[in-house]
Amino acid sequence: MIARLRICVAPKFRNPYQQLLARHLEPYGVSTRIRDLETKDFFSPSKINADILHLHWLHMFYRSTSRLGGLARSRIFILFLRRLRFRGVRIVVTVHNVLPHEMKYPEVDLYVRRAVVRLADVLIFHDDRARNEFTRLFGQPRGDVVIPHPVYPESLVPLPEKRKAREYFGIKHDGLCALFFGRGGKQKGYDIVLENVERFNAAGVHVILAGRDCRPEHVSGATNCSVLSSFLPDYELPPLFAAADVVLLPYRSCTTSGVAVLAAGFGKPAVYSDLPAFAPFESAGLGRFFAIEHPEQLVALTAEASALAKSPSFLKAVQSFREENRWEAAAEKTYRTYRLFLEDQ
User: Fold this and answer.
1) Do domains 5-150+326-343 and 153-324 have the same CATH topology?
2) Top-level CATH class of 5-150+326-343?
3) E strands, the chain, where?
4) What DSSP letter does each residue of 192-231 carry, written as one string?
5) Domain ranges of the chain
6) Could you say which of 92, 183, 234, 297 has the lowest number of CB atoms within 10 Å?
7) How far apart are CA 35 and CA 47, in angstroms?
8) 161-176, pLDDT tens digit by residue?
9) Taking the model in full, what pTM does it have?
10) Which residues, given as ranges, of the chain have pLDDT below 50?
């Protein structure tokens, strides 16, 4: 038995998931160090100095501007993991996405995941669907566990009044507002929102585009759009979601969506594409769903989704979602997972 678990978490990412998990693991006597891993670190596994290396977002360890560079970095990374196992360091990977959102060199992404299946002691998934899909593609891992993605604490604070939130962001619209938040890429259906701006306008819907990839020139001439193109810090998330009536999630592919978790946590109905990843939100009654091959339905369902906000069944679904997806529960399951695989040594 180890008196105090030492966990090295990598990479250091702007997503607050790692920091929040580390904070909630502290009561279990877990010492967590969150850091980046550079190529030079792959040649010095002794510097990890931990009982467990807990990895997230694998593409960050081998991404490169060239296919050859990606292959070289990926092989060095895999050799590094083998050397860690030889030294007795256990390897845990949280699979936030079965595959990266954007695969510039698919053969590199596939190679890394096949290798990780053989090397990792345990893979953590956020739901059974993701676990089954990963296993189908890459084989059965040494160990696996499902730990649902918890609700971000920003979602649990009282929201400011809608009018004041819109004034804060300079949104001059009194009617229905729909929010698209995040990376402005094809994977997230940003182009679908842009292609439907005129339809939204005809329906009296004001569209809020928020994210560093969103640009005013993308909706040049549109009078029903507000573009927030800078990075939004965590403290601006409550007013951002308070300003919106509906959240738009027209994703083409997804394993886990932090925006969907935020929307449900904030109590905002959403319009989701019909991806399997969003099935739990559908069964919980947290929004409306459209077929991705019929993107015109996005506009038609926006007003319908907004009407859910005052529904007793929707409010109950939001409360249940918050209760079932607490950080305390995720930390307890993670700690049990750490202990289980270390005690097998």
Assistant:
1) yes
2) alpha beta
3) 5-10, 30-34, 52-56, 90-94, 122-125, 144-146, 177-181, 206-210, 225-228, 246-249, 270-273, 287-290
4) HHHHTHHHHHHTTPEEEEESTT--GGGGTT-SSEEEE-SP
5) 5-150+326-343, 153-324
6) 234
7) 12
8) 999 999 999 999 999 9
9) 0.84
10) 1-2
